[in-house]
């Protein structure tokens, strides 16, 4: 209880409070309570001292509550910031993936306009993936050779 900081009601310097050591019969709490200021010599007893101490105890309690509320808000804000950053990173990843996919699709679309034979850069014929039967044959031969090599 003595950890609580209490001010002197008279001079507002730090005051002490304690319970009388030699308690008389019946002089129990808060009747045995003494609030004392060493600076100005002020003293108050029992319920009056108790009222002063209570005032500071309640103020201290409210201060602690405000601190814990502030900490909770701060923590919540930090959590939100972290969540937000994670979300943003995820979104950036998703956008990059979509971008890459559409890029690949665009490239595939462009390539689809050309002859399929890897060494040919001519446009394909309508209704064919090759520009000519020559390229078609080259590609077939290539595929056949690859299959032979794999065996
Ligand atoms: Zn005082
Ligand atoms: Zn070709």
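-> sequence recovered:
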């Amino acid at each position: 209880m003595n950890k609580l900081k209490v001010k002197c009601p008279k001079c507002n310097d730090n005051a002490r409070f304690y319970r009388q050591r030699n308690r008389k019969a019946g002089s129990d709490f808060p009747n045995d309570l003494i609030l004392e200021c060493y600076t100005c010599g002020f003293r108050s007893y029992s319920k009056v001292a108790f009222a002063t101490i209570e005032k500071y105890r309640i103020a201290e309690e409210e201060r602690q509550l405000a601190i814990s509320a502030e900490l909770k808000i701060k923590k919540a804000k930090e959590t939100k910031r972290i969540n937000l950053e994670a979300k943003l990173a995820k979104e950036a990843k998703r956008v990059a993936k979509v971008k890459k996919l559409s890029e690949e699709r665009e490239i595939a679309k462009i390539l689809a306009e050309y002859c399929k034979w890897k060494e040919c850069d001519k446009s394909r014929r309508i209704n064919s993936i090759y520009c000519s039967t020559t390229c078609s044959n080259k590609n077939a031969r290539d595929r056949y050779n690859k299959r032979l090599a794999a065996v």
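The pocket of zinc ion (ligand 1) is lined by residues 8, 10-11, 13, 37, 39-40, 42 (CB under 6 Å).
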